[in-house]
Write a structure and sequence with these properties.
alpha+beta
């Protein structure tokens, strides 16, 4: 059995997640464990407004998980995810083995506390027409 590392992003129903935060999170971990997977990191990413409604929901709770699992069991995991009513959308991707440690350590660190504001755009006034045109071409 070939075991690979995977990243899974879930969009959860915000209402159901708010009612049972631990239960919904545990369900995701249980699905991964059930297929013989080893969870590296599983955590809340953020809650945000969706670009378009999914199953009548306008907000979604994003959950991210990194795990190792047998590659032949990923189809079974995708089927379980599809049947779960708490999950609106999901994406499971295989991770390049060279970057697994970096991604996992970044996910364990959590979101950054300070969000930097973008640098202000400095606009210079355009030169006046008279200044831009040489004198010999002006008249």
């Amino acid at each position: 059995m070939a075991e690979n590392a995977y990243e899974a992003m879930f969009i959860l129903d915000s209402n159901r997640y708010a009612r049972n935060t631990g239960g919904v999170a545990q369900q995701i971990n249980d699905m991964i464990s059930k297929i013989g997977g080893e969870i590296l990191v599983s955590r809340l990413w953020e809650e945000r407004r969706l670009a378009y409604p999914i199953n009548g929901q306008r907000k979604g709770t994003y959950w991210i998980a990194y795990f190792k699992a047998p590659s032949e069991k990923i189809a079974t995991l995708n089927r379980e995810i599809h049947l779960d009513e708490n999950i609106l959308r999901s994406l499971v991707l295989k991770i390049d083995p060279r970057i697994v440690e970096t991604l996992v350590s970044h996910a364990k660190a959590g979101p950054t506390e300070v969000q930097r504001a973008p640098a202000p755009v400095v606009r210079r006034p355009a030169p006046a027409i008279a200044e831009a045109v040489p004198e010999e071409l002006g008249n």
